[in-house]
Amino acid sequence: MNTLTINDPKFSITPTGIQFNEDLTFEEWDSLGQKIAPIGKSIGFIIGDWINYGENRYGEMYEQALKRTGMAYNTLANFAYVARKIESSLRNENLDFTQHYVVAKLKTDDEKQHWLNMAEKHNLSIRRLRKSINFGRLATEEEAQGDPADRGYVTYLALLNRIRRWWARETQKAPVDEWDDDRREGLKKDFKLILDIYEAL
Hints:
Elements: E1 11-14, E2 17-20, H1 26-58, H2 62-69, H3 73-85, H4 97-103, H5 109-121, H6 126-135, H7 141-146, H8 156-173, H9 181-200
Antiparallel strand pairs: 1-2
Helix pairs in contact: 1-3, 4-6
């Protein structure tokens, strides 16, 4: 059944909400919720796919999309970005669009699939999913809720992950044994600060 087609004399779905014409039993109310909930989860992908199709088929389509939807440009751009970055085969109907948005920045489909699976398996909130990706491992509830980064501070884990990502990028460009002596000695001197912290523990 097409979940966008819902006909019932007891209520009317309008562009601004639902107008209830008669009382609904609990079962009717619950059934309506089961029909409309998936629409909320998928609307970002539906509009994003529609924009991307128009872009690929006809060229720049944001002007038309703005007219048709009445939505803000940033909203439409986010929909299109996530729909473009998360292929249909990776999308998880049990997760919110925002959870897909969090993983859209990841480089490979394997990474995206891994974190979407983790989000479903562990019922991750947006904050905990984001922290887990930044940490490179499943963040605990305490880390997700009480991390000082939520108050504007940068934690040592975030800093170490930045260094790790920098190291991966640099060594992919060229293996360490291909670096010149000046660069290697300069980095050894800089990274001795981290070694000093390690040895003080």
